[in-house]
Write a structure and sequence with these properties.
The protein is an alpha/beta fold. About 40% of the residues lie in helices and about 20% in strands. The chain has 2 domains: about 290 residues, Aldehyde Dehydrogenase, Chain A, domain 1 (3-Layer(aba) Sandwich), CATH 3.40.605.10; about 180 residues, 3-Layer(aba) Sandwich (Aldehyde Dehydrogenase, Chain A, domain 2), CATH 3.40.309.10. The protein binds NADP nicotinamide-adenine-dinucleotide phosphate.
Length: about 500
Amino acid sequence: MTYVPHGKHLIAGEWVAGDSTFPSEPAQGPTHDFAVGRVSDVDAAAQAAEEAFWSYGYSTREERATFLNTIADEIEARADAITEIGSQESGLPKARLQGERGRTVGQLRLFGEHILKGDYLDRRHDGALPDRQPLARPDLKMVQRPIGPVAVFGASNFPLAFSTAGGDTAAALAAGCPVIVKGHSAHPGTGEIVAEAVNAAVKKCGLHPGVSSLVQGGDRKVGAALVQHPLVKAVGFTGSLGGGRALFDLCAARPEPIPFFGELGSVNPMFLFANAMANRGEEIAEGWAASLTMGAGQFCTNPGVAVMLSGDQADRFASTMQQALADVPPQTMLTDGIAVAYRNGQKRIADTGGVQEVLTSMCDQRNATPYLYQTTAKNWIENQTLAEEVFGPLGVIVCAENADEMRQVALSLQGQLTCTLHMDEEDTEAARSLMPILERKAGRVLANGFPTGVEVSDSMVHGGPYPASTNFGATSVGTLSIRRFLRPVCYQNLPDTFVPECFS
Ligand code: NAP
């Protein structure tokens, strides 16, 4: 069933037109017009979210679990239409969007189960000690409470799982926070149909309509107004370093600064050790080629850098990579802007002194083909622009003269979402010696695999020191992500009936 977008904002249960429109720029299929977001739309959505908080923030966990499951049902009820428009707008294959829809409804349902268990409330109780000397101890109870309206910015590369009803929205709604989504201009129609699904769930569950709003973009002022709105209490952001940093700075400069949970880019370095290279270097190279080019390399966990010892094994590795990548056909990128940024990033790497081309390629404007470069560890450390993310299928092989140079590369890393070790048993000691460095650099360290594919679970950490994310204490994937939208409150000597989520 084809969905034809009406192009309006969703504000407190009403579809609202604007003064002007912007056209979508689909990779294929028809273009549609969408209302340009205004500061007044942001204000109306924030006021409604604040009003909704007085009931939604005090809803029961059962009510919110039912709501999250109903959103999942409503998304499933629109499955084919979501896949069609999502694929048209993003250029992503239908199978990828079907998989992403599964992940999106899966994480909504997972949050439903998670809040029912109640562990996330982290309830603590220090009972009264009236006879303690020299001072009596009061009765102290602590519980995590929702913080209020949350703004959510999704990324272009996950039109479902990191967007309107994606991980940030699911976590905030589970916590008890109303959400205002800033629609992504790369997939406004997909954002709209998912907002329809959320709105249908709001109605079915009899919730305040301000619980969920969608304000479309078309003007960067919308995002700026949203993060600066006094009623917004936190921001969940997934996107570029440049965009994230601009909005983070606005949050910090507010009269009342608020937390900005920005999940930004990463080069996700891999360290390949000598025995793993000798025993299965070609297999690792083929695996890397597949991971690097998956989804045209448009993943924040794309492994863009492989660090290894120089020598024959490294040469064989580079030549296997070159052959594997040469067969990869052009793939459509998410937007024209991302395709331009990919070409600029590729030029930046190619123009850096001391960098050799292993594979170059050519393709049409919105398509991407892979590139592979090689350089020395010394050169990589001296030219830190080589360590910046190129969003697309571009890899850099970094060759170290010895184990100490590998260590120096690890030490020079900026914050990362992931770091990977490729090691065989005989490499254990060398690999373990990097661990104290890598666990300070990354939110997730993995062995003998590729970081693309992020499990949504209790133990997952998808974040890391800056610039991987703006808040290293948090994750944007998995149940721990709910903590971003909660605040501990201590209740001293209050009767149980005054304490939310009461203990007894
Ligand atoms: P983006 O260009 O930064 O856009 C993200 C959102 O922020 C959009 O809604 C955009 O508005 C808005 N925005 C960006 N700059 C802004 C500014 N200066 N003022 C106001 N609003 C602004 O990112 P993207 O291209 O969608 O996503 C690709 C990037 O996301 C890659 O770097 C990738 O690594 C990263 N990513 C990270 C993760 C993670 O979990 N760490 C996951 C996926 C992707 P418009 O709609 O107007 O463009």
